[in-house]
Amino acid sequence: MFRYILRRLLIFAPLLLVISLVSFAIIQLPRGDFVTRYIAELEASGMNIEDTEALARQMRTTYSLDRPVAVQYVTWIYRIIRFGDLGRSFAWQQPVRQILADRMGISILISSCALVFAYAAAIPIGIYSALHQYSFADYLFTFVGFIGLALPNFLLALLLLFIAFNGFGVSLAGLFSPEYQNAPWTVAKVWDLLRHLWIPTIVVGTAGTASLIRVVRGSLLDELRKQYVVTARAKGVAESRLTWKYPVRVAINPVLSTIGWILPVMISGETITSIVLNLPSLGPVLLRATTGQDVYLAAGGVLVLSSLAIVGSLLSDLLIAWADPRIRLQRGST
Amino acid sequence: MLRQLLVGSPGSNPGSSIGRRLVAPVAVALGLIVAVATTWAGGQSESSEATEASQTGKTSQEAPMLAKLVARGELPPVEDRLPRSPRVAARISPDLLDQKIGRYGGTLRMLRARPDWSSEIFYITHEELLHAEGIAAENPVPNILESFEASDDYRQFTMALREGMRWSDGTAVTTEDIRFAYEDVALHDKLTPSPIAWMRDGASADGEAMKLDVIDDYTFRVTFPSTYGGFPAQLTRIFWRGYTDLLKPAHYLKQYHADYSSMDDMQAELSEEGMSNWWELFLKRDITDWDVSHPNAIGFPSLRPWLPVDSSATGMTYERNPYYFKVDAEGQQLPYIDRIDNVLIDDGEIANLEAMAGELDYLYNHAQLRKYPIYKENEQNGGYRTRIMRMHSNITLYFNFTYGDPVWRNIAQDIRFRRAVNHALDRDRFIETIFLGQVGPTERIPSAHNVDKANELLDEMGLDERTSDGWRLRPDGKPLEILWEADTWLANFGEWAELLAEDLKQVGIRVRVKNIESALWSRRVADNEIQMVVRVFHSPVWWGYGWDGFKYGGPLWQNWWTNRGQASAESSGSMEEPPQAVKQLLGDIDRLMFVPPENREQLIDGIWQNIRENLWWLEITDSRINAYLSSNDLGNVIDEGFANLALFLGHVWYFEE
Question: Rounded to 10 degrees, what is the CA torsion of B265, B270, B271, B277?
């Protein structure tokens, strides 16, 4: 067991190095760099720059982009290893670590709200549908569920924005109203946050809800047909106790074990929703960093997300190994 | 005798300024300039300047927000913060704005589309040494400067700063700031590797550098070896230039300059930035005009109406500059508005939604004409007004004369081809479709729509063979097909190209329109890989906004001209000598910058004649229009004039009760 963990940990470092190299290289692939994109955008907003070459040269000097790419990469990696410094974003002029930390909180908030929403909505509905199979309500939930599955997140986001705007004349984009955007935390700001948070919660949660309903309904139906339920019913156990005591608990099990793969789905769902809804979360920042060739931010973001994924898969492997002696023994004996 | 080209508003302090001594000839001098100059709109005279001169001697007042700080002793009283002769703003022709005295306070909510750049902030905080209202940079008047005089031969320019004017950190602005900016930065080969052309003889990078003489703490003089009639214009908003080329906060920047500071003092910051050379750090710390909306600008001493105070994931916050040098007609220190919330919104559609829900006070760059009906529909709910204003540019079509395909080059360089296409363009239809008929066709070149004439010209130049589908064949037997790549920064480019391509198809020229991403497109333009371009165009004779030369119409010619045919390690890509008429045009446009003002008109006539005869590019419309939104509560917002002028008046905007 110990050797197994050690070996996994040994792979960890070179794997990250390869990921950093690949992500750094991919961002350099398009023609031009951050500075050419920045200047193109300046010109796009109506600026006539007299001497673009001079501006570009000055910017490259201040951003150290005038050095060869290999040197930039080595310096970057060296500072990560030596100081844990992921570099500085050109666009934000903040340390990448700080940007990621700020944004990660919002992403996690949205995703976890969405997750709670998904479970809170899906489990009761799934149970109800299974218990009343082929009833009108079951068909209705199935119908709604499939729409939820089929509807792209961003479309739902736009629809909700449209309804809020047309019905109440307010814009619910963003997480805060402009007057609270840059304000310190107060009760009013929290209230304002809650007022905006429900849209992303529903939007990100819906896709997950729909599939969860199906999972709960399916596994509960399987369970209800098993012998022990029939036996219990034959012995005269009350119907409600009969359902809740065993089949439901068993049926929820696969739901809990799939948290692992629901989470990434939700985080990637969060990205496009956040762009549409203008949320200050991680997704839009990384997207903008990649399209704008904000190298350190993009590569740093990919690096951090990849390490989370690697740690996550390591943990789940360990859990499986812990739970299943066959795997543990097989690994351990080699 | 010196010609008093421009005179500043005299201060309350008798005899202290050059301006005071020159009050008498003001009317004569201004009258003369107005007569000589071609202003972009009639009646943009200097009448408002005369009223400015009469506004003196009032006690200054200040914003309640600052009065509190003064009462607590954290800030000197307003009299000590304003220059002895503050600038009375905003100077705008009364035809355009009936300027009202505003009230202090409030937060302006505006948009930024990227974390490091906001054109709205760039415009609203823009300050320059001289101010010219018009697009042609004619009739400049002192802005940051208190006075400005040109010698008769336009070789020598004497200028004075406003005594008592202060940087936003309270340090006095003196000629040391000018000297530092010029001698220690502009002429320093590490800090300014490519020479600043406008500070040199003939406005050319290889010209002799101007000579700067500091006369006293506030007065200085620059001298050029030869006549430089456009120098006053160079100190205005030309090329969106602000004051930072010639005026930098020396007291702050000296700590990053190796001549004044030791490497040991800088070491901590250098290693924090991961830099090894002091000039890299200097360039980063020095906030130039292009950096004003950048988070780096926080804490940098400036002369602008608002200062950045905070940057976060959701945008930036700006607060009033307590040392701002302008007052209104009643002597109240400007700006009226206390704060700007510059909210970060990536997506243009969301920006529109926020504005329509009344969550933004001003929407300019992301507003779209085609949304006009929904803007109007939601005005009540959002509490804003929709305005339609003219832009300072029109729409123009370019052929790349130096494109890699030699057969295409021969065709495009044939004047008959350009004339034919010009006849083929149905400008009325274009204007009706895109601008709801609200602008006119160009008046600078002939614009009659005549398909028969177009066909006749194309047949005459040997493009009369056609395929069975009716497409014209080139002399080498291939179909005459143009790949028209439009970039996507303005969603409209593709739309415009599609519409214009229809006109070309009518006369048998096959055109394929393709949209490509902006940054890639820019790169390909520079590499001479784009065959045909549609773009917004600024007049080559409007100093104020510069123009693109043959950047689209013949990148290789442009390269040749920029490098004067001298290949160097610096010049990117290849070059090719342009024909005589192109050299003539480019030369004349450069000459505009340094001929004396009285010769400009004749030169401009020649330039337009050259363009009319050769049709180097085909202008479609005479201008553009766009919609923009401003909150009903905002006062002193203009309804007429060029759209981007509105934001330059931000310091006199105020929130009505």
Answer: -110
Are the C-beta atoms of residues B223 and B131 closer than 8 Å to each other? no
* Token pair listed for A87: 């570099």
Q: Encoding tokens for residue B214?
A: 């500091």
Overall pTM > 0.90: no
Tokens of residue A78, six digits = 């060296």
Q: For residue B335, is the peptide bond before it cis, meaning its omega torsion is within 30 degrees of 0?
A: yes
CA distance linking residue B281 with residue A61, whole number of Å: 9
Residue of A nearest to B391 (CA): A46
Across the interface, whether the CB atoms of B356 and A176 are under 8 A apart is answered no
Spatial contact of B257 and B192, defined as CB atoms under 8 Å apart: no
Between CA B513 and CA B500 the distance in angstroms is 10
Higher per-residue confidence, B533 vs B34:
B533
B94 touches chain A (CB under 8 A): no
Q: What is the DSSP letter of B86?
A: P
Angstrom distance (rounded) from CA A120 to CA A112: 12
- The number of CA neighbours under 13 Å toward the Cβ of B11 is 23
Mutation target vs B (from A171, A277, A286, A297; most B CBs, 10 A cutoff): A171
Residues of B in contact with A39 (CB under 8 A): 522
Q: Give the DSSP per-residue string, B9-65.
A: PP-SSTT-SHHHHTSTTHHHHHHHHHHHS--SSTT--THHHHHHHH--SPPPB--HH
pLDDT tens, B537-591? 877 766 545 567 888 899 999 888 887 777 665 555 688 899 999 999 988 888 8
3-class SS at A277? helix
The phi and psi torsions of B508 (rounded to 5 degrees) equal: 85, 10
Closest Cα in chain A, distance from residue B191 (Å): 8
What CA–CA distance (Å, rounded) separates B146 from A268? 58
Q: Which long-range contacts (CB under 8 A, 24 or more apart) does B555-563 make?
A: B555/B400, B555/B402, B555/B525, B555/B526, B555/B527, B555/B528, B556/B402, B556/B528, B557/B401, B557/B402, B557/B582, B561/B586
Q: Please write down the HEC assignment for all residues of B420-456.
A: HHHHHCCHHHHHHHHHCCCCCECCCCCCCCCHHHHHH
* Contact call for A178 and B274, based on CB within 8 A: no
Q: Could you read off the pLDDT of A26-76 as tens digits, one per residue?
A: 888 877 788 888 887 787 777 777 777 888 888 888 888 888 888 889 888
Which chain B residues are closer than 8 Å to A298 by Cβ?
none
d(CA B243, CA B325): 14
Burial tier of B229 (Cβ tally within 10 Å: 0-12, 13-18, 19+) = buried
Tokens representing B37? 């100059």
Residue with token string 């008592």 = B164
